[in-house]
């Protein structure tokens, strides 16, 4: 079979090369792939829910509870009504849209002064029905303080009422689980059922609303449905004026479910609102209002891009933190409230791919500038005009502390009102914890709201957030609820991806199996099991490099050859990393070999598959890697995981995620499962300590020096021969160098030239 056809990202097969039947099959198969480019339906869940209010025509209420209130906005889940307001109409030329917006805004300003917007809300049963159907669960996590106590009491009272009803024999309500002692209160805020509501019910800025429309998003994803009302107008969403001051928020939602715009929209709206309020007093202040922290540079720049798309024409500046950027900051006047509390932060930052990325960044930057020049430069640079700053932890900490020390920052960021942690579980993991906590401490305004986002959130991370928030609440004497939203079932899963777990006896067998994914065994019309573009994950930088070396000539010249396959890891320069990212995004590169540096957050919409060449080191690791495909509800994504006997002790957590994903996808018991029950039962459980070690260090055998660390198809005899030859050449060079040195200097200090590159987890 023609390799071009195999690897091509195009969706139209060449009719000359195919039979009619085969062609049709191939088209059908390809049309389902994420790379087909079809606009997906981004919602993952829409279960039928039995409810007393089902089938009832929805009536909207205004804030005062008036159901017959005049409906001057769109009926949110009805397309006809949307066409009335023309929210999803094709985008107007930018200048026209902006001009119109400016005029409207002028009008709006005048109207706002005279009349407060009437927000129309759904009644509680309707909220429950929608939230349940989309598997959205809100829980109040924080302790009872101030307004929160009221909220909690209401939620608990509701449950008691339900229990009473069920005892009395209420059929529908009787199916509800009664409250258990010590159970956290569940909340039922207003959901967002259409993007049109953002403008008409939640009053967001017109240009921001236009920019959302321009992106072509038709319906909100579950996390957008649940989080946007709560973050934009918590008082309205929760039906409690007290809450208008804001909430702290944890969102756990599947990979690729659109969390990025969910935190960016309220951040941008927050800036615009603050400007509007200041404007009324006649003074426009440009100040840093929000910080988004992400664990890798790739993710941070992606967030900046997304932010800039949403902020077009609003004047809101979304900026990527760079060395030398001067922010509006103040010297730290007093010790932060949490300084005494460091029991959880004793551990040194672990060596990890993410961290290494940051270290490398510093090294590169410091190479660019000489020490003294750098200081002079810093002083002379004007303050950057930034509204929303996107950063990796260490680069911001470098600015805050001058020396990048992890304990206490010297500067504070007094104007920041919103701290957003994307991939919060990794940012609050010991790997980044000290850095993230130091940034949090530097946000000294009492109103700073924290929002945390990830597809995975361990309970110890939630506990850490709760503890520190309650300390801040005491310190600043504030009361703000911490609310958690979980989308989907409790088990971490990647439901819209096909999972394959493949055992190979040896490392060489793995390489052969990977080649089979690249090349079809026969010239069947269905093509190879995995169609490019795809991402291959390895455990360490050295293994990524070695795998790249091994595969780089596998794609024939006429199909683009070596240029089609690339490797990306944190020891590459920033420029090279971003070039490779662009090439993969534009389709020039078909196979991207990488490490966990790209496992989280990075969004390549058309990735057809993920190969775990090395088993991920945790269940969360698997979720994030597998989640690089099947983005925004796209179907047809495949995640293939190879394992050898070295991995058997650790493969259970991956197998569990696969089983949970297949259960959520309705495959359980269908015979289609890739992890059979007998295998799940047979796999050994991983001890807690082993899990911890594995997460930090990976499978020992694959680390540098381990027997299985290298990737090659050479036999051990060939490898030994090559090694001997290489060592003999190196020894001879060394002898010559030493002789030359001795001759020149008469025996000066020998320079250490054996410095090996640090590669990934431990190499
Ligand atoms: N409502 C929507 N409809 C269609 N596509 C959407 C919608 N919202 C976001 N998207 C798209 O979905 C893709 C994934 O979004 P995003 O990167 O924010 O996911 P995520 O939830 O942050 O994933 P991860 O957990 O992997 O970081 C992006 O390409 C984004 O443009």
Automatic annotation (TrEMBL):
Signal peptide: none annotated. Residues 513-683 form the Helicase C-terminal domain. Residues 68-83, 336-350, 358-371, 754-763 have a biased composition (Acidic residues). Residues 19-36 have a biased composition (Low complexity). Residues 167-179, 717-732 have a biased composition (Basic and acidic residues). It is an enzyme of class 3 (hydrolase). InterPro entries: DDX52/Rok1_DEADc (IPR044764), DEAD/DEAH_box_helicase_dom (IPR011545), Helicase_ATP-bd (IPR014001), Helicase_C-like (IPR001650), P-loop_NTPase (IPR027417). One of its GO terms (molecular function) is hydrolase activity. RNA helicase. ATP-dependent RNA helicase involved in 40S ribosomal subunit biogenesis. Required for the processing and cleavage of 35S pre-rRNA at sites A0, A1, and A2, leading to mature 18S rRNA. The Q motif is unique to and characteristic of the DEAD box family of RNA helicases and controls ATP binding and hydrolysis. This is ATP-dependent RNA helicase. It comes from Podospora pseudocomata.
């Amino acid at each position: 079979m023609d390799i071009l056809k195999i690897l091509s990202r195009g969706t139209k097969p060449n009719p000359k090369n195919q039979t009619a039947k085969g062609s049709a099959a191939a088209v059908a198969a390809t049309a389902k792939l994420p790379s087909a480019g079809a606009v997906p339906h981004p919602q993952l869940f829409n279960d039928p829910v039995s409810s007393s209010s089902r089938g009832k025509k929805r009536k909207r209420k205004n804030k005062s509870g008036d159901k017959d209130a005049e409906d001057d906005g769109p009926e949110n889940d009805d397309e006809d009504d949307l066409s009335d307001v023309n929210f999803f109409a094709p985008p107007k030329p930018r200048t026209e849209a902006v001009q119109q917006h400016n005029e409207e805004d002028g009008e709006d300003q005048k109207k706002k002064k005279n009349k407060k917007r009437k927000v129309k809300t759904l009644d509680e049963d309707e909220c429950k029905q929608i939230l349940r159907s989309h598997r959205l669960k809100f829980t109040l996590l924080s302790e009872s303080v101030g307004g929160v106590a009221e909220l909690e009491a209401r939620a608990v009272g509701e449950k008691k009422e339900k229990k009473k009803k069920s005892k009395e024999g209420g059929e529908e309500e009787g199916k509800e689980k009664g409250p258990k002692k010590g159970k956290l209160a569940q909340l039922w805020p207003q959901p967002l059922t259409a993007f049109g509501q953002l403008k008409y019910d939640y009053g967001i800025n017109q240009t921001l609303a236009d920019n959302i429309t321009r992106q072509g998003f038709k319906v909100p994803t579950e996390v957008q449905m649940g989080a946007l009302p709560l973050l934009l107008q918590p008082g309205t969403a929760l039906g409690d004026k007290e809450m208008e001051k804001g909430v702290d928020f944890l969102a756990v939602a599947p990979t690729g479910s659109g969390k990025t715009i969910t935190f960016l929209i309220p951040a941008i709206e927050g800036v615009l609102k603050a400007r509007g309020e200041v404007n009324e007093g006649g003074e426009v202040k440009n100040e840093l209002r929000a910080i988004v922290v992400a664990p890798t540079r790739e993710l941070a720049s992606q967030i900046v891009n997304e932010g800039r798309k949403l902020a077009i024409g609003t004047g809101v500046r979304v900026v990527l933190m760079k060395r030398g950027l001067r922010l509006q900051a103040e010297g730290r006047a007093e010790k932060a409230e949490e300084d005494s509390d460091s029991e959880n932060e004793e551990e040194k930052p672990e060596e990890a791919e993410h961290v290494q990325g940051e270290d490398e960044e510093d090294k590169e930057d410091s190479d660019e500038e000489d020490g003294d020049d750098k200081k002079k430069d810093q002083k002379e640079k004007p303050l950057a005009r930034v509204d929303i700053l996107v950063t990796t932890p260490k680069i911001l900490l470098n600015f805050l502390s001058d020396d990048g020390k992890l304990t206490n920052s010297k500067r504070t960021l007094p104007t920041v009102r919103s701290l957003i942690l994307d991939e919060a579980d990794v940012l609050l993991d010991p790997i980044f914890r000290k850095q993230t906590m130091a940034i949090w401490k530097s946000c000294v305004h009492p109103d700073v709201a924290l929002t945390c986002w990830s597809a995975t959130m361990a309970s110890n991370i939630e506990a850490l957030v709760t503890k520190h928030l309650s300390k801040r609440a005491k310190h600043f004497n504030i009361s703000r609820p911490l609310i958690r939203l979980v989308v989907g079932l409790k088990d971490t899963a990647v439901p819209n991806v096909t999972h394959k777990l493949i055992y190979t006896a040896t490392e060489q067998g793995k390489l052969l199996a990977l080649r089979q994914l690249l090349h079809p065994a026969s010239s069947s019309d269905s093509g190879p099991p995995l169609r490019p573009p795809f991402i291959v994950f390895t455990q360490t930088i050295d293994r990524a490099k070695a795998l790249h070396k091994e595969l780089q000539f596998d794609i024939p010249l006429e199909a683009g050859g070596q240029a089609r396959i690339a490797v990306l890891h944190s020891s590459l320069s920033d420029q090279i990393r971003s070039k490779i990212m662009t090439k993969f995004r534009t389709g020039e590169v078909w196979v991207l070999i990488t490490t966990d540096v790209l496992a989280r957050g990075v969004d390549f919409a058309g990735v057809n598959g993920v190969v775990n060449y090395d088993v991920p080191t945790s269940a969360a690791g698997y979720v994030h890697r597998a989640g690089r495909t099947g983005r925004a509800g796209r179907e047809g994504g495949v995640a293939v995981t190879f394992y050898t006997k070295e991995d058997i002790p650790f493969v259970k957590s991956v197998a569990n995620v696969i089983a949970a994903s297949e259960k959520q996808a309705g495959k359980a018991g269908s015979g289609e499962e890739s992890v059979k029950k007998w295998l799940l039962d047979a796999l050994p459980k991983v001890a807690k300590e082993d899990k911890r070690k594995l997460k930090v260090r990976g499978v020992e055998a694959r680390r540098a020096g381990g027997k299985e660390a290298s990737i090659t198809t050479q036999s051990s005899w060939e490898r030994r021969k090559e090694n001997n030859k290489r060592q003999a050449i190196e020894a001879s060079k060394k002898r010559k160098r030493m002789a030359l040195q001795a001759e020149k200097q008469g025996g000066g200090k020998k320079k250490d030239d054996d410095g090996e590159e640090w590669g990934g987890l431990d190499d």
